[in-house]
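Tutorial handout. Part one gives the primary structure; part two gives the three-dimensional structure as tokens.
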Amino acid sequence: MEKLGTLIIKLKEQFDQNEDADKLLITAKLLVKELHQHLSDAEKYANPSVVSDIDINFLDTKQPKNFTSKKQEGSGWLFDQAETIPTLVHQQSIPIAEINETISQQQESFNDKLKEERTELASALQSSPVRDLKKAIGLNDRYLFISELFRGDENMYERSIKTINNFSIYPEAEYWIQRELKVKLGWRDNKEAVRLFDQIVRRRFS
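Part two.
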């Protein structure tokens, strides 16, 4: 009976969505076929009017030429199906290219949303104050600063961070960084690593 329920729901959905008559007829054929399978021979012989009513309502009008019916003596309506009735999967088949395109659009939408959330989170973190530069700088940024700003010298990096942490106000730290780091090590202000370093230092004194 589960398949019957599925077909009934499908037929109702097609009707509500104003599907073409040929699609409604196909689903109706499937439904009638399923009903016949559930009716025992005794029920069909005892109640031929039930089967006849079903046949007349769903199949007698505008039947395809290759779908024939006949009435045998002493029995209800029997059907010789000269065509293969397509399944629900066949009548709702969607091109693979269209499926791939839909999946691709959904993936792009998800990626855009994720990128926006990451940007918002990064913006919030960048504006929050920090008390200790050493703790505020993550492992990835630490490696970036050592390799790109401190010429791979880890000791120089550690000494510089400790010195900056000991300043009381930002102008003092800024002056020291300009004189001891940017000038002597040749930092360029338009370099991404330099901008990130300056940003973290400003947060230390905000």
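Part three, for discussion. Residues 58-63, 67-75, 119-124 have pLDDT under 50 and may be disordered. Strands lie at 67-71, 77-81.
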